[in-house]
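Collaborator request log, item 7. Partner lab (contact: R.S.) asked for a structural prediction of Bacteriochlorophyll/chlorophyll a synthase to inform their binding assays.
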Amino acid sequence: MSVDINRQSQSPTTAPSQEPISIWRVRLQLTKPLTWIGPVWSVGCGVVGAAGADLSVDTFLRSLLLMVVIGPLVLGMGQSINDYYDADVDAINEPDRPCARFPELFKRLALTNVAVLSAAALAVSYIAFRIEIFLLVLAGLLIAYIYSAPPLRLKQNGWFGNTACALTYVTLPWIAGNYLFDSVTTEQTIVAFIYAIGSHGFMTMNDFKSVEGDKACGLRSMVVMYGVEGGVKIALNMLMASQLLVALYIAAQGHYIGSAVLGALLLAQLPFQPKLKRDPKRLAPWYNATANSFFILSMMAAAFTLK
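Returned to partner:
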């Protein structure tokens, strides 16, 4: 199904477009598929770290189903409700997006996404998984709601908002992956929470692209509160500190080789930082795609080491 966007409300600063747009394409865009990668990877870390997981087809299929619940359903819901409440901000930051070109229809589609994806996530997790995973899914949906929606709207403050994102991107999916194979341990849980500190820094990297819109709409992101220079320092310190803490913790558990691997992955990120500091607003996506790849690999290495 397609609609003519010229019949919808338009941003006064955006010229009309003659190209019809698919309703289903907008629904998919609302869920931001690229953002599913983070929590899906965290589920994978939980599975890799689970002593009860093996290389069987059953392990693969159960893991895949949990990844679908956590990624497209839970995170897709979170992205949709965030776009609903942030349509005005996003219209400033990204004037070519549908939220700027036809905001009324955009918001209706976002609310439909929220309802359908929430119901699907709860139904599948209740039917297919143990109660602990259902409760983690419920917690993820609630955190996604209070992150975006008033009166709490955690994203109004960078410390609270980025913490909420870090928990839903890293900690909850990781622990859910452990629970999938009855393999939750204190060590895996501690590491999942420590990596959320680094994920907080990761989220700050994403704040650089939206600083103008955040300021205009009164959102106190880390970059708005501390400036571009302060924001990049906080982000890098949190990313580095989390990995150092995990490396030290794993060494304290007697896993010296694993700790050395994590140390090497941390050191590999250092050469990228001087370039990032020269122009964080422009180079944050580059840093996420290069240096932060080592951070992501360190998550999996830590999970495997503690298996």
